[in-house]
Specification:
Number of helices: 16
Shape: globular
Helix content: over 70%
Largest sheet: none
Radius of gyration: 25 Å
Distance between the termini: 49 Å
Order of helices and strands: HHHHHHHHHHHHHHHH
Length: 402
C-alpha cells in the first residue's frame, strides 16, 4: 500500500495495531495504579459466559471478513486525498518552496549563501553579516550580565551556525563547540567522550553526510521542542486537552513508521520538507508526554507553599512547576532526539541526504561496510546528543536536590 500511495488502507492497517496497543496500555496502567479492585467473581462469570457462548455458537458465528464495514472508507479516503492534492497542488508546492527557501536553505548553507535576489529580493553582504554578529554579541553580553553566561554563549554559537550553515561548519568548530557543551554538562570526562566520538566520525570519511543528518534532525528536534512543548503545556493546564491529545499521541507512537511517509508524499512529493514532516510527526510524541507529565507531577507541598505565599496560577506555573519539571522535560527532549535519528533512516526513502541515505543505499547494494560505518556514525551522533542532554538534566536534578 505504501508503494501505491494508498494511505487509507495503510492507515486502517496501522490503526489495528494502534487499537491493540492502546488497549494493552490502558489495562496495564489500570493494574499499576493503586485503586479498589472489582469483584473477581464477576470476571470469572464473564469468562464462563463467553466460553459457553463460543462453544454453543461456534459453527454459527460469521467469518471475521464479513465485518468489513470500513472496506469502503479506505478507498474514499484515498479518493478524497487525491482530489485534494489535484486541487491544491500548486498551493502545497508554493508552501513547500517557501519553507525550503526561507528556513531550510539558510540553516543548511547559511545566510551568506541562501539570501539571494532571486528568492529574498536582496543580496546578503559583508556589512549585514557584521551587524548580525554585533546584534548577537549584544544579546549575549546582556545575557551574561544577567547571569546567563551559558545561554549567551549559545546565542553566539547559534549566530555562527545561521551565518555559515550547519552543513558548512568547519569540523574544528563542531568538535570544540560540542566539547564546550560537554564540559558545561559533565566536566572533563564528558569532554573526552564527546571529542573521541566525534573524532571517530571525522576519520570515518562520513563527516559531510553526518552534518547533513545533523542539520535535518536538529531542525526537526527544534520544531518538536517548540510545538510539542506548547502542546504539553496546554495538556498540563487543561485536562480536557490532554484527553484529546493522549489518544493522538498513542496513535502516533504505535502506528507503523512507514505510514507517516504516505500522506506527506501525496501532499509534498519527495524532498527534505516531506522528511521533516515525517520526522516531526514521529518524534514530537515524547516531548508532549514528558512535558505534560513533568508539569502535572509537582509535589503538593510545593504547590501549597506557592498558594500560601499568594502566587497566581501563572506564577506557580513559571516559578514552581516549570523549574521542578525541567529534568523531566529534558528527558523528553532526549527521547525526541533519539526518535528523530531513528526516523531519519526511514525518511531516506523519500529523498533525504546524509547518513540515512547512505544506510539505505548500502542496504540496496548489500554493502556491509558502508552500512555498518554509516549506522555507527548515526549512532554516535545520537549518543553524543543523549549524553549532553542527560548531563544537563542530571545537573538540574542536583540543583533541585532530587
Amino acid at each position: 500500500t505504501m508503494r501505491k500511495a494508498q494511505f487509507g488502507q495503510s492507515f486502517l492497517a496501522g490503526l489495528v495495531i494502534v487499537v491493540f496497543a492502546i488497549v494493552i496500555d490502558r489495562m496495564s496502567g489500570a493494574l499499576a495504579r493503586e485503586r479498589k479492585r472489582h469483584d473477581m467473581r464477576v470476571v470469572y462469570a464473564i469468562l464462563a459466559a463467553t466460553a459457553a457462548l463460543s462453544l454453543a455458537l461456534w459453527t454459527r458465528l460469521p467469518e471475521p471478513s464479513a465485518f468489513g464495514v470500513f472496506a469502503g472508507v479506505a478507498e474514499s479516503v484515498d479518493t478524497s486525498l487525491g482530489a485534494f492534492t489535484a486541487t491544491y497542488g500548486t498551493t502545497l508546492d508554493s508552501f513547500k518552496n517557501t519553507f525550503g527557501f526561507f528556513i531550510f536553505l539558510p540553516l543548511r548553507i547559511g545566510l551568506d549563501g541562501a539570501v539571494l535576489p532571486f528568492t529574498w529580493g536582496f543580496q546578503w553582504t559583508a556589512a549585514m553579516s557584521l551587524w548580525f554578529f554585533v546584534a548577537a554579541a549584544a544579546v549575549a553580553g546582556l545575557l551574561a550580565w544577567r547571569g546567563r553566561a551559558l545561554l549567551g554563549g549559545m546565542v553566539c554559537v547559534l549566530a555562527v551556525i545561521v551565518e555559515i550553515g550547519i552543513a558548512e561548519l568547519p569540523w574544528v568548530f563542531v568538535i570544540f563547540g560540542a566539547a564546550a557543551l560537554g564540559y558545561a554538562s559533565g566536566g572533563r570526562k564528558m569532554v573526552i567522550f564527546v571529542v573521541a566520538m566525534l573524532g571517530a566520525v571525522l576519520i570515518s570519511g562520513l563527516w559531510e553526510r553526518a552534518l547533513l543528518s545533523l542539520y535535518l534532525s536538529g531542525t526537526s528536534v527544534f520544531a518538536c521542542a517548540v510545538v510539542g512543548g506548547a502542546i504539553g503545556l496546554a495538556s498540563a493546564v487543561s485536562p480536557m486537552v490532554w484527553r484529546v491529545v493522549r489518544p493522538i499521541c498513542d496513535m502516533l507512537q504505535t502506528i507503523p513508521l512507514f505510514v507517516f511517509l504516505i500522506p506527506v508524499l501525496m501532499f509534498f512529493q519527495i524532498g527534505e520538507f516531506s522528511a521533516f514532516l515525517a520526522i516531526c510527526a514521529y518524534a514530537i510524541v515524547p516531548m508532549i508526554r514528558y512535558t505534560q507529565h513533568g508539569l502535572t507531577t509537582t509535589p503538593e507541598e510545593l504547590l501549597e507553599a506557592a498558594t500560601t505565599s499568594g502566587a497566581t496560577e501563572w506564577q506557580t506555573l513559571v516559578e514552581v512547576r516549570a523549574p521542578y519539571a525541567m529534568p523531566t522535560i529534558l528527558l523528553g527532549l532526549n527521547q525526541t532526539i533519539l526518535y528523530a535519528f531513528a526516523m531519519l533512516v526511514i525518511a531516506a526513502l523519500i529523498g533525504t541526504t546524509g547518513l540515512g541515505q547512505s544506510i539505505f543505499l548500502a542496504l540496496g547494494q548489500a554493502d556491509v561496510g558502508l552500512g555498518i560505518t554509516a549506522g555507527a556514525a548515526m549512532a554516535i551522533l545520537a549518543l553524543v546528543a543523549d549524553r549532553l542532554v542527560q548531563g544537563f538534566a542530571d545537573e538540574r536534578r542536583r540543583a533541585l536536590g532530587l
